[in-house]
Amino acid sequence: MLRKWLCQADVTVRLHPIDPILIKSGYATLDGPDMVPVSTLRDGKKTYFFPGSSLKGVLRSHFERIARTLRPGSVCLPYYDPKREDKFEIPVPEEQESYGCGFRKPSDGRKDSSATAYHESCAACRLFGSLRFAGRFSIGDAYPLPGQEPKAGQRNGVGIDRFTGGTVHGVLFDLMVVEGGVFETAIRVINFELWQLAAVNFLLHDLRDEIIALGSGRSRGLGRVKGEVERYVLSYIRPQTHVVGLTELATEQEQQHYRLHQWQPPQPISLTNGQTRGLRHEYDLTTNWMDSLRPLDASVEAFLQWHLPLGAPNR
Ligand SMILES: [Zn+2]
């Protein structure tokens, strides 16, 4: 994407597990991307952490759900390859063309470039990436804060029967959970469009409201976490008086090649107290991002309504 750096959002999030997080179940899960905390040795002690790749998977699938709710068929099924012999039929009529953006080829004579891949990618792939394109959103591993490590334990017997339905007694001893602790991770979105910033804010709101769960067994009521924003900073290459995104900072040609979304909030959102850090101009929104950026919320649905159809299948 765009071989230059124009803007960036950095958000530090603390994750507080509310329920035990199931880390080893011994049976297949239908919960979608699995979130498996991994253990490592730190200062000679065994510590559990949540890998960034797994957190990204959970946040992506949550965003996909939001996008499908706002507009059916607006995001792809990332692993659905139309060329595969054993392909399954997509059951939802609105999603018949929703094969993975990574399996599309350039349409309308566009050349095969990262601009075209971005142009033709669905909302989820534009933000989180696909086989064709790396995506804008990244999230680091979530490590426990010093002195706030979780406890690891084994679950068995009665406590487990509640959600296994008592049919898988053989695996009860395999159930491992981590409980408690406070984890910290960093989200970064480089060259964000305004709707992408709004989409990340939706995820932050849902983390705060304990709607997003981690680990296996999420559908059985395990793994709720509360996510709290510790720091929220927007950075730009040039000083800004108002919140802008990639579209406003790109050239007209880039806007066309990447098919950037043209959208303005009803009122401009002021930026104040900028700090210069080398080449960057930073604006700290930690205390007021929730209220000040709320006018961006409508941009997500506006983008989803505008941004179809996607590229052609690579058959
Ligand atoms: Zn996609």
Mind explaining what this structure looks like?
A hairpin with a 2-residue loop joins β3 (38-42) and β4 (45-49). The protein starts with 6 loop residues before the first strand and ends with a strand. Helices cover 24% and strands 22% of the residues. The radius of gyration is 21 Å and the shape is globular. It is an alpha+beta fold. The protein has one domain (7-313). The chain has nine helices and 14 strands. The protein has helices at 52-70, 114-119, 123-128, 158-164, 194-208, 246-249, 252-257, 289-292, 298-306; strands spanning 7-17, 21-24, 38-42, 45-49, 104-105, 137-139, 143-144, 151-154, 176-179, 183-190, 225-236, 275-277, 280-284, 312-313. Mean pLDDT is 84; it is low at 25-34, 157-162 and 168-173. The strands form four sheets. Strands 1, 6, 7, 10, 11, 12 and 13 form a seven-stranded antiparallel β-sheet that branches. Strands 2-9-8 form a three-stranded antiparallel β-sheet, with no helix packed on it. A two-stranded antiparallel ribbon has the order 3-4. α5 packs across α9. The structure holds zinc ion.
